[in-house]
Amino acid sequence: MDIKALFIILMSTVLVNNYVLCQFLGICPFLGVTKVLKNAIGMGLAVTFVMSLATAATWPIQIFILDRNGMGYMQIIVFILVIGALVQFVEIVLKKYIPFLYEALGVYLPLITVNCGVLGVTIVNINKEYTFTESIVNALGAGLGFLLAMVIFSGIREHTENADPPKSFKGLPITLISVAILSLSFFGFTGVIENLFG
């Protein structure tokens, strides 16, 4: 296994192909949980954990069960069921061991089940024909990219909440403008990773 190739996959997924800011997957928790930094970090870590576990579970199911039995058409249904079970597991663990985070995440925790970012990662891994190791690295990178975006945007939202923008920009408009500018800043990484390590 080429460590350099794995590092390129990891860094590309974190910075260049960030699932939230460049592919626009997982926007709901991104906009909903980033008002408080602690909640943003908790949600980012939970999504990273679920993405990695979901990839570890769905890749072998796809390769060894669905593909071998000609049932590739069941991919989305099976993947959603696996992701739903994993989210229930995370919810139980958080409720028992980190109750303040469980309470803070509220409705957004069960929404990880239908987070298109988690499902998107598992499907992209299959579509790009990644090996199991490459799939795990891609999922980890997607989760870390999600966490990075959540933390950065949480800081931005803290500043915009304390700012005094014109009346027409208050609330959702300033939030969406901030997301757009943050997203544009991540497009600046395009080509850097491949040229730096390629």
Give the helices and strands, then pairings.
Blueprint: H1 3-16, H2 27-33, H3 37-66, H4 75-97, H5 99-105, H6 116-127, H7 132-162, H8 172-187, H9 192-197
Helix pairs in contact: 1-7, 3-4, 3-6, 3-7, 4-5, 4-6, 6-7, 7-8
What does this entry look like structurally?
- The protein is mostly helical and 198 residues long.
- Helices cover 74% and strands 0% of the residues.
- Helix 3 runs parallel beside helix 6 (116-127), helix 6 runs antiparallel to helix 7 and helix 7 crosses helix 8.
- The radius of gyration is 18 Å and the shape is globular.
Characteristic terms for this protein:
74% helix; single chain; 198 residues; mainly alpha
Q: Which runs of at least 5 residues are low in confidence (pLDDT < 50)? A: none
- Global outline: globular
Largest sheet: none
Strand tally is 0
pLDDT averaged over residues: 88
In short:
With 198 residues, the chain is mostly helical.
